[in-house]
Amino acid sequence: MIERYSLPRMAKVWSEESRFHRMLEVELCVCEAWQRLGKIPKKSLQAIRQKAKIDIEKIKELEAKTRHDVVAFVNNLSDSVGKEAKYIHMGLTSNDVLDTAQGLQLAEAFTIILDGAQKVMSVLARTAKKHKNTICMGRSHGIHAEPTTFGLKVALWYDEMRRNTERLEAAKKEVAVGKLSGTIGTYTNIEPEVETFVCGKLGLEVSRGSTQVIPRDRHAAALAALAVTAASLEKFATEIRHLQRTEVAEVEEPFAKGQKGSSAMPHKRNPVMCERISGLARLVRTNAFAALENVALWHERDISHSSVERVILPDTTTLLDYLLEQFREVMEGLVVNAKHMLINLGRTKGLIYSQRVLLELMRKGLPRPQAYDVVQKSAFASLTLNREFKDVLSANPQVKRRLSAAELASCFDIRHYLRHVPKIFKAVGLD
User: Fold this and answer.
1) Catalytic residue among 6, 68, 262, 410
2) pLDDT at res. 268
3) Active site residue 306
4) DSSP labels, 366-420
5) Any catalytic annotation for residue 94?
6) Residues 54-88: pLDDT tens digits?
7) Domains of the chain
8) Contact by Cβ (8 Å): 112, 10
9) pTM here?
10) Using one digit for the tens of pLDDT, what is the confidence trace for 392-418?
11) Which residue in the list 140, 141, 267, 404 is annotated as catalytic?
């Protein structure tokens, strides 16, 4: 299934080519800022812009010698510029370029993720509205509780994804930042105006109060938002997996023509997409933990975070983009067995209406403890005797004494349970 994922979309963001060209973009903007401040002649800036280019293979060769990617990058860029190279990287430290370039990559990655989240919300909205009145069994602890609708279940997923989208938008704002404040963050050899100009031109906010690096609480918060979103997708996928069990058979994830469920059992149609979502969500959460470990650095800077981020940032954003696409595909092809939902609704022979009977007996004057005992004993008798719950209640003297046949029957009216569904839909923005 993974080959159907449009991997180049996110892979391009995190490619070496993208990384180095983002770094080049930062360096050129810095030169422009210096020119505006009168530190670089206009002709020199024009020459730099005309000549500046990078050779990624050459950068790799240089890095093998220097063991420093930014030095290799700057040297390669300087070679292309020639005599004007004295203005390249002027007043900057490595992380001025790296963190600002990474801010651009993260902004682009979160834009892709937000697009995927919006697509998931769209299919959830359509599914919720379509099945707004598709009655199904609500469960707690895995046990039949009271009736609900499948559309309402999905509407709540929609509302959860809305919250996730808000968190993702906040996360994007958190990491779509740059810093150009020098080696310790004190602007010793660079002016704050350079930072303001460069970040503004690149569409980034300035990370105020940075040291030599952008504080990593920003990245931890961003990966936490990705992890929460993945956890929600796992929650939805787990529900579908439960509802697809043979004993339940209420929904089924799409099964493509020619697809095989088992190498040994030809009859199998397994919820493999949802299981994949559940599994990969664990990796996203693990990476969020690694981002939290990156927050504590020595003094104004060390690089213990750097190697971690080269793994967790591309991996996590790519994983969540994939999970969003997978879940959208699940929902678009989801098979909903409304008939079997109704069958399951009747499996307990009316026990799911016990609370209504309890409340009606209390309304008629029977104290709650006694009313609870009457209903509970009748419910257990219904299970033991395999009789309809309403018939067992009808034969109970305490029930007969307080409730007429019509009043008892009204307790089993399913419409009572669903009367506020339209209000809930309106509350979550799906009216």
Assistant:
1) 262
2) 77
3) no
4) --HHHHHHHHHHHHHHHHHHT--HHHHHHT-HHHHHH--HHHHHHTT-THHHHTT
5) no
6) 999 999 999 999 999 999 999 999 999 999 999 99
7) 1-90 (1.10.275.10), 91-253+267-342 (1.20.200.10), 351-411 (1.10.40.30)
8) yes
9) 0.93
10) 999 999 999 999 999 999 999 999 999
11) 141
